[in-house]
Design goal:
By secondary structure, this protein is α+β, with helices and mostly antiparallel strands. Helices cover 18% and strands 41% of the residues. The protein has an eight-stranded antiparallel beta barrel. A hairpin with a 2-residue loop joins strand 2 and strand 3 (58-66).
Length: 165
């Protein structure tokens, strides 16, 4: 009985990484870009990372960003990104963990990279600036091992899809 439940759970998890057509969910994974200050190579590099989970046409995820020298950080939390997929393009909303601003983003899969473009601001904040790029090419992590926090983000996304909240 326990073995059957474990097997069913494993199949459910595996199935969620595929689209409804049975093909791999191309947006699922960790995507990132590094930002370094070339004039100051002694300083730590910053960057921007998104962890995405695709289930059919739905996307959910989390982000984190840091400026070069790590002087400003933006950690969005487990569901800071939600959106929908049509073919090789995703339309997303992203909420800054730094100032609660909300932005509209299009993310287009192109040649193994994710072309990220912030297209609009839905909710502007007057308190501080977020660390969310306006336009970047994000590279998918090559490692099969999930990034730290990826499991928690997946659980939060699945709960969101089940409850609608």
């Amino acid at each position: 009985m326990r073995l059957r439940r474990a097997a069913a759970g494993a199949l459910l998890m595996l199935g969620s990484a595929f689209t409804q057509a049975g093909e791999p969910a191309p947006f699922t994974g960790t995507w990132s870009v590094s930002w370094c200050n070339k004039a100051r190579p002694d300083q730590a590099c910053g960057g921007f990372t998104v962890h995405l989970l695709q289930q059919g046409s739905r996307l959910c995820g989390a982000h984190s960003g840091a400026t070069p020298n790590l002087s400003r950080l933006d950690e969005g939390g487990d569901q800071s990104i939600v959106g929908t997929v049509v073919a090789d393009t995703a339309v997303l909303t992203i909420r800054s963990g730094r100032n609660d601003s909300v932005h509209l983003v299009t993310a287009h899969l192109q040649g193994g990279a994710l072309d990220w473009q912030l297209t609009d601001t839905v909710l502007k904040s007057d308190t501080d600036t977020e660390v969310i790029p306006t336009r970047e090419e994000l590279t998918k992590a090559a490692t099969a091992a999930p990034a730290q926090g990826f499991d928690d983000m997946q659980k939060a996304c699945r709960a969101h899809w089940q409850t609608g909240r």
